[in-house]
Design a protein that fits this description.
- The longest helix has 14 residues, at 73-86.
- The protein is an alpha/beta fold.
- Helix 5 (189-201) crosses helix 6 (219-231).
- It folds into 2 domains: 3-86, 2-Layer Sandwich (Alpha-Beta Plaits), CATH 3.30.70; 129-261, Rossmann fold (3-Layer(aba) Sandwich).
- The chain contains 7 helices and 13 strands.
Length: 263
């Protein structure tokens, strides 16, 4: 170990609120959220350049000159490789968020339940309220168990649906637990297993699958039906096909597990 006097990041834990902005900015992975505070995990991973300085909203990060282990690019490569391995799929029971879990080091992935906001009058009329009842919404980030699935009507929507459909919140989202995914760009293999776990181990009342009219989007419906078959549950499924101009082009009732078996 070579110790030199050099510039290196320092984090004031008194100021740090654990927002995690610096974690995503540090390309060396030298900063992690530990016990709700940002921490420099090893001196030799920090190059001292300070790209994270302007990111911290609390001003908790500074760069100082002190005796520290020399920056080691090979150690950074090993560290980043280890981080990637640790982010590979694990047992579903191990990824349920706890009150102090930030979902893979990002505080923004922490599960939150909230009621849709009330309508607020504005100078030009009325503000359209959000009907979103939970965060996060991306299927990969959602916990496989918990209150969001209890007696829930679940909406599984392709990523593009909400952008194409102007009245997405009012027409499809209201009163539902939302999960979004892209059947064309995402690796859908893990989605089948995760949804099978969600359907099989929670009291899900109904499933609605919203897809775009384009052919590649129908893969999401297949993912859901495969997961339902794997779960062994008999849950009613409805598919909604949205046109590229945001119109509801088709609604299909697909039944439950029996329909999945013949899908």
């Amino acid at each position: 170990m070579s110790v030199v006097t050099r510039q290196i990041v320092e984090i004031d834990e008194e100021k740090c609120d654990g927002c995690g902005d610096c974690v995503t900015t540090c390309v060396e992975g030298a900063i992690q959220i530990i016990d709700d505070k940002a921490k420099l995990v090893a001196d030799n991973l920090c190059d001292g350049i300070g790209n994270c300085l302007g990111i911290c909203p609390q001003g908790a990060i500074t760069v100082h000159e002190r005796a520290a282990e020399a920056y080691d690019e090979s150690a950074v490569e090993k560290h980043l490789s280890k981080q990637k391995r640790e982010k590979l799929p694990v047992q579903l029971t191990q990824i349920t968020p706890t009150p102090h879990s930030h979902g893979g080091g990002c505080p923004g992935s922490q599960l939150r339940n909230f009621r849709p906001e009330p309508v607020v009058a504005t100078a030009t009329g009325q503000k359209r309220p959000s009907m979103l009842g939970q965060w996060p919404v991306q299927l990969t980030l959602l916990p496989p168990a918990g209150s969001i699935w209890d007696k829930a009507n679940v909406l599984i929507a392709a990523d593009c649906v909400s952008f194409a459909m102007a009245d997405f919140h009012e027409t499809l989202l209201a009163g539902k637990t939302l999960a979004i995914a892209c059947p064309k760009l995402d690796d859908t293999g893990p989605y089948v297993d995760k949804l099978a776990h969600i359907f099989g181990n929670n009291d899900v009342r109904s499933i609605e699958v919203a897809i775009m009219e384009v052919p590649c989007c129908r893969g999401l419906l297949q993912v859901v039906m495969d997961a339902l078959q794997q779960s062994g549950k008999d849950i009613p499924v409805e598919a909604v096909v949205i046109g590229v101009r945001g119109t509801v082009d088709q609604r299909m009732s697909l039944g439950g597990r029996a329909a999945a078996a013949g899908c």
